[in-house]
Amino acid sequence: MKNSNINTNQEYKYGFTTDIENVRAPKGLNENSIKFISKMKKEPKWMLDWRLKAFNRLKNLKEPNWQKPKYPKINYQDLYYYSAPKSASNKPKSLDEVDPKLIETYKKLGIPLQEQKRLSGVAVDAVFDSVSVATTYKEELTKKGIIFCSISEAIREHPELVKKYLGSVIPLTDHYFATLNSAVFTDGSFVYIPPKVKCPMELSTYFRINASETGQFERTLIIADKGSYVSYLEGCTAPMRDENQLHAANVELVALDDAEIKYSTVQNWYPGDKDGIGGIYNFVTKRGACRGRNSKISWTQVETGSAITWKYPSCILQGDNSVGEFYSIAITNNHQKADTGTKMIHLGKNTKSKIISKGISAGQADNTYRGLVDIGKKALNSRNYTQCDSLLMGNKCGAHTVPYIKNKNSTSTVEHEATTSKINDEQLYYCNQRGLNQEEAVSLIVNGFCKEVLQQLPMEFAVEAQKLVGISLEGSVG
Amino acid sequence: MLEIINLKASINKRDILNGLNLKINPGEVHAIMGPNGSGKSTLANILSGKNGYKITGDLKYKGENLKDIPVEQRAQKGIFLAFQYPLEIPGVNTNNFLKTSLNTIRKAKGEKEIDTLAFLKLVKEKAKELGIDEKILSRQLNVGFSGGEKKKNEILQMKILDPNLVILDETDSGLDIDALKTIADGVNSSRSKDKSFLVITHYQRLLDYIKPDFVHVLSSGKIIKSGSRELALELEKKGYKKIN
Amino acid sequence: MIENFKISLKEIDKINLINQEDKNYRIENLEFFNKKGFPTKKEEDWKFSDLREIFSKNFKKIDINDAYPEENNFRLIQEFDHNYILLINGRLIRSDFKFEDKNKIKITGYKEENFLREKSNNPLICLNNALSNEGYNLVVEKDYKFEKVLVIYNLFNEDLSEKILNNKNKIIVNKNSELHTIEYTINRSKNKFFNNTYENVILYENAKFKNICIQAGRSEGYFHKFLNGSIKSDSKYSSFIFSSGLKFNKQDIQIDLEGKNSDCEIKSALFLNKEDHQEIKTIVNHLVPNCKSFQKIKSVLDSNAKGVYQGKIFVKDIAQKTNAYQLSKALLISENSEFDSKPELEIYADDVKCSHGSTSGNVDENSVHYLMTRGLTKKEATQLLINGFLKEIISEIKSDTIKKFVENKLEFQVYGY
Fold it and tell me: Residue A308 in contact with residue A282, Cβ under 8 Å?
């Protein structure tokens, strides 16, 4: 017999917390807590100045309110802006020195660090509560001149790169949450791929939110220099908890001439319980600049978690012949709300963009695709193709498609298509007749619906994502 | 194997079956023939457990009452329905679907799940037996399949899932002679003493290839005449009206 | 910062008021408008048409119009038999229903009591509520089908420099009745003016209403029309919009499908040239099950023209078996033209068929090339293709004479480019 504890855990597979003592900044958003973060990170003065500049800007900004999902007012003075596992202050020299509790957590998540080195060939910069604890595969990457480290380390070790590119895609003044991140970001990843280098492995970071009342403010910066290639994976799980947690990450990508960046996300943070209590607020700013000629940035996301997801991974297509892609699956169940999509800003000649969005809504959830395609006057011979499909399960949920399409160029073509459908009863019957139960059948059909996006994910991720699609919709068909 | 006693069924208050009786023993092949609207497809749907019908009477499969057993459990117990119109399911890989299906059935039987390699070997073997190009198995389930390909795919699924009671719902409709032969070969090679078949068809043509032990004529929701294979030939000559 | 227009409360005194209550309602609305001003692109509904900017560029001041001169040189359309009503600067001057049973039709000018005092957040509706003083009310009694089309001549005379005209119209088609109208706008003003119309259409059970909207020629007028349609069961609303050649025109259409099996069609073919800026904004609300809506908007943009389509389909949770479709296609034939669209779906019922598509781009090069190999010049080939592109909509008009009439109007513009 299972006890009730285990049953609770089953509802949200990754719902557990780890007891690790935390070093915390004083509560509240003010210059002192920003100085504290900067000091803890041993940052140079220019970095602190940059943060304070953002903080001053923030005072004049208001939280945006145009997005569909509304959320209770956040008391920014009641949050901790920095917390680090204590064991991080004397950094482990090898994986064996890592806090065994951490290792155990990762094992529960299905990412045993110990084995990863040997088995998967994936280098992992594991973020546990805002601070990088262990980075593997560094040596192998270093040989190729690739820099893959925490952003804190990059600020200390590679200031010239950070100074040049940080905030160059998402300016300090962008919008409330992005600016908040610029002021108080704690950690995240930094990647630099030198010219003509193809990164030999998928780079990956697993995020975890752990300490209570800790807003998470990751900052990621990826630079692909001329002719280089990198594929980056971001996966998230979070422990069970009752309070809403704010997560406002900034991710900046820069692709120079002939470079390509592929950025994949599987987001499975705690969505709140069946009645909509708790869950993460996922207010993320992700933006990539195709700065060079023939550059390419491709975003793929599978969003199944969080109480509220609000993100628009975007591409600024500056370089001639540059390409932007956005592949998205957003699944909302129970009381989840997602408002997600992309912006494709065409500035250069012969730029191309493609948007494939699959939204699935069940329970009382609300799922919105919101996107902008903007073809500028100088973006001669540019192309966009957009396809947004929504799947509704039941009549208590909603699907919303809000594309903004601007074409200022007579030599360019924009195409947009959207459909709304439900799972066909006859399809379910056919699957049942072949022995599949309702949930297996739904999972199969929904995975089929999402196929074009799932195909974009790297192998390791695709399998996990397929399972997630099924798990996320459990109990949604009665 | 299957016993149907005084089966009555209606949908949206319209009576379709009006007291149908049928007994099929292990190893037997029964054919049900009847004009359009006589209730043939309804019978197939009800045996598979499709929702939406109001039913009275008894359905016994291997001695067990089928009432209240949902579609997927009937399938797991070995009832297979080859659809008249196999459904298209976009994005779902045919092989993947079949493997999932086979493993749920194996699990229900208490057998070990089959791994991908063994599965692919099995599929290859069965496809070869049927003369089916296995390329269609790496395509999306029934999407863009021709009528013949869809029906062949149904028979391939039957071969792989290895059921005990097979219901063929007008599997012959819309097929050319080559496809018809492929399907008949598939069925004939599967005949055994612990497998039964219920072949539902409008035309006698299929019965030239799949030789039934018994032929029943269905009209207005009832079996009005039963006999041997010769009954089918008689029907072909005289038409349904005369039999009535 | 662009300064906003404020309209003096004294303007209200120019209107013949019925009572103090009316006056208070108007003052309230004007104060709201003065506070909010002409909408800017910061407002979602005006994202692609910044009216405040357009106004400040083109108008120094704006006064209420109080001149309604007698018409001269007014000639009826000769191409087909029709009934008509004549509006000059929005005022109902006369009507002629010689093909119909006059007992079945009621037509009157603007009447205060015909409209509910509704609160609105839309500044232009508020402006209309504050200043409207002209318009017409048309009622078709039940069980009556119009024999001939009704042409609504909407004439604007020569001296409307910097004037604002606010009209309120109401059309009611009762049970089992049928009405077909052509709204024909004739612009004689050489100067800029602003016409702000509020129109209310009610179709009762099993009624049909079809409207074609078309212009006689180019105009210096700035037009805004808010149309609210309330569609009861088994009735059908159908609208064709061919309003080419206007400096600024925004049609803001809200259709509420309130009764089962009701149906709504909005089709448009626009040729926008010079500095034309036109927007069609629609919301079709599917509020009950089994309703159908269909929208197809085709635009061709030349010179510095800008076209906008904002279309929204809303499906309420109970509105199962909805069938809703929306398509916008635009051809940009000049490097300075622009087309923006926002085709929006908001769906809360699962057993529905809803889809939309939107494309914008150039004339198909292969087709141009093909025609050129047959001896046509590039311009001729382009004209032929855009004419064909727009004709698809016109071909859906049933009456041959009216179809021909509309075709001629549009061809005149296309071949004049």
Answer: yes
Query: Do at least 3 CB pairs under 8 Å connect B with C?
Result: no
Q: How near does any CA of chain A get to the CA of C334, in Å?
A: 6
Is C403 among the domain residues?
no
The four Cα atoms A64, A66, A69, A71 give a dihedral, to 10 degrees, of 40
Task: Give the domain CATH number at B78.
Answer: 3.40.50.300
Residue scoring higher pLDDT (C303 or C113): C303
Chain B residues at the A interface, defined by Cβ less than 8 Å, are: 48-51, 70-72, 74-76, 80-81, 83, 86-87, 89-92, 97-98, 100-101, 104-105, 108, 140-141, 157, 161
Distance CA A340, CA A312 (A): 5
Low-confidence winner among A108-122, A141-155, C107-121 (lowest mean pLDDT): A108-122
The predicted structure's pLDDT at residue A136 = 52
Give residue-wise pLDDT tens across range B84-125: 988 888 888 888 888 888 998 999 889 998 988 899 999 999
Nearest CA in chain B to A437: B72
Q: Where are the domains positioned within chain A?
A: 4-472
Q: Is a pLDDT exceeding 80 seen at residue A43?
A: yes
Is the per-residue pLDDT at A346 higher than 70? yes
First to last CA, chain A: 25
* pLDDT of B47 above 90: yes
User: Which chain C positions have a beta carbon within 8 Å of A392's beta carbon?
Assistant: 347, 349-350, 352
* Main-chain phi, psi angles of C212, to 5 degrees: -120, 130
Q: Please count the other Cβ atoms lying within 10 Å of the Cβ belonging to residue C18.
A: 11
**A-chain residues near C323 (CB < 8 A):** none
Q: For chain C, how many structural domains are there in total?
A: 1
Neighbours of chain B (3+ CB pairs under 8 A): A
CB atoms within 10 A of CB A176: 16
Give the chain A residue whose CA is nearest to the CA of B163. A434
Domain range for B221: 2-243
pLDDT at position C132 over 50? yes
Smallest CA-to-CA distance from A167 within A110, A252, A107 is with A252
B-chain residues within 8 Å CB-CB of A452?
Answer: 91
Instruction: Show the beta-strand stretches assigned E in A248-397.
Output: 250-255, 260-268, 279-290, 296-303, 308-311, 314-317, 323-332, 337-340, 343-346, 352-362, 366-375, 383-393
ipTM: 0.86
Whether chain B has a CB inside 8 Å of the CB on A436: the answer is yes
Question: Residue A455 is encoded by which pair of tokens?
Answer: 């195909």
- pLDDT exceeds 70 at position C330: yes
- pLDDT band (50, 70, 90) for residue B172: confident
Q: What is the pLDDT of residue A117?
A: 38
Query: How many domains is chain B partitioned into structurally?
Result: 1
Residue of C333, C338, C348 with shortest CB distance to A408: C338
For residue C402, being part of any structural domain is answered with: no
What contacts B13, CB < 8 A, 6 or more positions away? Answer: none
User: In DSSP terms, which residues pair with C165 in a beta bridge?
Assistant: C195
Return the residue of A nearest to B100 by Cα: A436
Q: Per-residue pLDDT tens for A188-221?
A: 889 999 999 999 888 876 544 444 334 578 899 9
Interface partners of chain C (CB pairs < 8 Å, 3 or more) are: A
Cα separation of C355 and C326, whole Å? 7
Return d(Cα B42, Cα B58) in angstroms, integer: 15
With b meaning 16 or more CB within 10 Å and e meaning fewer, what string describes A311-325?
bbbbbbbbbbbbbbb
Residues C295 and C325 sit within 8 Å (Cβ to Cβ): yes
Cβ-contact C317, C285 below 8 angstroms: no
pLDDT at A205: 67
pLDDT-based confidence at residue C19 (cuts at 50, 70, 90)? confident
Closest CA to A211 of A48, A11, A27: A27
